[in-house]
């Protein structure tokens, strides 16, 4: 088990900059996910950690050891990729023992290590089958097991759950979490699926365009996004954004939305805010409330309602803005009606229009 430091790590393919000077310190035993849109550099970052790609700049350290120029076999990393690449002509047992044999581990130790990991992953019954005789989820477990027997210092996973159906994905996700609890090996997991990342990780790296946008706990990236990109990328349905201008009335600063204004507590601002500043107000759908009785709010048109079972996603229109609200399933709200809504004042964010940086 080891910590991983990325110091100003960059990676170019010809003129294409895939990763731009990334800095990150992943603690020993942490479970980290890297999320971000397609092509943002997640896999490249993982491959640089693994030694499968050479960094174009910067350095990679495992603990205090610089490994930037070390080939993969000198790094003691375990890797599971979406394309599982089990050897089809070998039994599960032989697949799992293969790496140990290459490393020259004696027969009896190979056997006992495979048995131990197979027990952990609940695949003992499958050891004499061939990969073709396994379900997708079982193949997944074998691929993970094959890596675990090598007792890696670092475990790297690249979308290993992507090919599975939704139910199996949740099962394997829970197993991976349990495995991480048991073994505690430093793990970096690349995924498109932010929900998966939120539930599994100690911390999340949100990437865009080859750069880290935020590296923080799931709670932090959700509730305190660094910028508009993170705010928009994390959370389903996405945060609502409304362009607005700050306006001072007397001693109080308001965000003027056109259809309503929201009071801004200047003590909570990350920098000084001024009358006339252009910002984008962000509010998550679950922080848009339907008003009842005499509660104050602005008037909206309910366009349509999507029930999800537990909740309802309410699609609203107010002025030029389309917004979404999430309300409880039992709330009585239907399409084509006029309702009053309010934003929870302690749950709004302001982003600088130009830079997207969070200022409140
Ligand atoms: P996805 O989610 O689609 O897998 P990603 O975030 O993992 O994407 P990368 O695979 O790291 O993205 O790719 C980052 C950029 O680098 C992309 O523009 C990609 O086309 C480019 N790239 C990746 N590998 C190579 C390569 N071997 N040669 C040239 N360009 C590459």
Describe it for me?
Keywords: ATP-binding, Nucleotide-binding, Transport. Pfam families: ABC_tran, OB_MalK. By secondary structure, this protein is α+β, with helices and mostly antiparallel strands. The chain folds into two domains: 4-225, Rossmann fold; 240-352, Beta Barrel (OB fold (Dihydrolipoamide Acetyltransferase, E2P)), CATH 2.40.50. The protein is 23% helix and 35% strand. It has eight helices and 20 strands. Strands 6-7-8-3-9-10 form a six-stranded mixed sheet, sandwiched between helices. Strands 13-12-11-14-20 form a five-stranded antiparallel sheet. Strands 15-19-16-17-18 form a five-stranded antiparallel sheet, with no helix packed on it. Helix 5 links the parallel strand 7 and strand 8. Helix 2 (92-102) crosses helix 3 (107-120) and helix 2 packs parallel to helix 4. The radius of gyration is 25 Å and the shape is elongated. 36% of the residues are buried. Adenosine-5'-triphosphate is lined by residues 13, 16, 18, 36, 38-44, 192.
Would you identify the regions where 5 or more consecutive residues have pLDDT less than 50? none
Largest sheet: 6 strands, mixed
Q: Catalogue the ligands.
A: adenosine-5'-triphosphate
Strand order of the largest sheet: 6-7-8-3-9-10
The domain tally reads 2
Helix/strand-derived category reads alpha+beta
Membrane topology: Peripheral membrane protein
InterPro entries: AAA+_ATPase, ABC_transporter-like_ATP-bd, ABC_transporter-like_CS, ABC_transpr_MalK/UgpC-like, Mo/tungstate-bd_C_term_dom, NA-bd_OB-fold, OB_MalK-like, P-loop_NTPase
Organism: Haladaptatus pallidirubidus
Subunit structure: The complex is composed of two ATP-binding proteins (XacJ and XacK), two transmembrane proteins (XacH and XacI) and a solute-binding protein (XacG).
